[in-house]
Amino acid sequence: MSFMNTIREAYSKNKGPGVRKANTWLHTLTGFFLGWIFYLIFFTGTFSFYREEMMLWAWPESHLSTAAEVQDFSSIGSYLDTYAQDSPQWSIMMPSDRSPITKVRYYDEGERPSKHGGHNVTIDSATGEQIDSRDSRLMSKMVQAHYMLFGMGKHLGLTVVGIITMVMFVALISGVIIHRKIFKDFFTFRPKRGQMSWQDMHNVTGVVALPYHFVFIFSGLLLTVFLLNPWGIQGAMEGDEKAFRELNGGKMGLTIPDMPLNPVTRLPVTEGTSAVLNSIHSQWNERQDGKIAMIMFSNPGTPKQQIVIRGERNNDLASGAKAPSWSFNAEGELVKATQPAPPPSSIIAFKNILEQAHQQLYAGPIARAIYFLGGLLGCIMIATGSIMWVQKREKRKRNAAPTKSVLRAKFLNVATIVGLPASMLIAFWANRIIPAGLDMRMNLELFTWYGAWVAMFIHAYYVGSDKAWRQQTQLIVLLSISLAIYNIFIQYPLLGIGSGFTWLQVPLMIKLIDISFIAIAAVALYCLKFMPKKEREVQLEETVNA
Hints:
Layout: H1 2-13, H2 19-47, H3 51-57, H4 74-83, E1 89-93, E2 102-106, E3 119-123, E4 130-131, H5 138-148, H6 154-177, H7 182-185, H8 195-208, H9 210-223, H10 225-228, H11 231-236, H12 241-247, E5 254-255, H13 273-287, E6 292-298, E7 306-311, E8 325-328, E9 334-339, H14 346-359, H15 365-396, H16 404-417, H17 419-433, H18 441-463, H19 465-495, H20 508-528, H21 540-545
Antiparallel strand pairs: 1-2, 1-6, 2-3, 3-4, 5-9, 6-7, 7-8, 8-9
């Protein structure tokens, strides 16, 4: 088989004494077999730094809801009492600095509450009125692909990604070892030199963002460590994961029997949902700094009712950046208060810091922008490594037919490096043009993304990699620039939102996302200058038959 030939080739060319030769073989093989999945994980992970902003972008009907906090809960309470009175759970996600809208989720009678179930309602934070927003979870599914890939359950997906992350860490370490002049590579770039240019770009992007790569790959591995190695908990805690969480400060925090000053002490549950919500709002503003993050009702309107108020996450990474919470019973009495617990040991503190650095739940705009840039450099590092692997083997056999491994790698490079972003842009267009009230529109968005990416693989296979590079990059240019034009000039008049040039009134982050599409088109146009214009006259079928 050609893949086995690739293994033998890499080993034979780097066998012999020396640590560098052994790691060259290891680095080549880990990158060759999993480089395309590395790229998917890095690309979607980079995208996820702005998941809240992209989720808001996916709901254009809510772009003019810019209030910093809910002013009046009466409309929200009336809505829940009218449309969700038999629901087993309500949750109200309050506006934040990153997303100025209020989101309400409730479930049908008898439905089990889950993260991705129920009905989602978007509320204008200034008026408390419902916004007829489209049903879209496209962005959350794109983020899920970062840590679960596709078509897998949570447990299996996390396990598979954990194993891949371990291999990625091996590839990173071996890549550092084989660098003889790692500091010189930081300043070396030779443009328009073919394979040397790809080598330099691979080295520069790897060295410049090396601390980023180490932190994020290692912390990603830590997030799955107990899935990959559960025997420690089983041995020390007899498999009791709940006891293990409590030992590490609890899932939510440390229970405090009598906090010195509770922001909310008692709720008027007999006066209705609107009175409860407005009471929470007024008491909180009088006694507590910061904002409410979420209010959740379990078994609302029944003797088993429980109300939980959760504050914003703190910035203490060592404690896990957890949030304080307060729980009330059916009579409106405070029965439990939790606050983030300090880490029980320096080892747990170190683990918490790395995990929170990976998840970026605490990060401000500047930190998020820096990490986003580091993620892009990681994508370029992986992409240039995959391209360089192909170019090296084509250079060795310039006058001979390329092997099946090289041809497969070429079309996989195209369909992954440019095909993935092209398919995501097609899915963004689907978000805009699929009617808001259409049944199953959420699934149609997802099927559009999956189908578009499969189409990129098929296209690259049948037209040849050189043509596919140009055509799929041209598609990125067309999709990006047209999406920016549509978002800025067309979509708001079509939706009947705002007056005048409405785009100027939307939040700054929405403007930056739309402008970024123009930047993507410009980068893609620049890349077209360096792409081959003629297909090498060797087809996959000829090589297979040979």
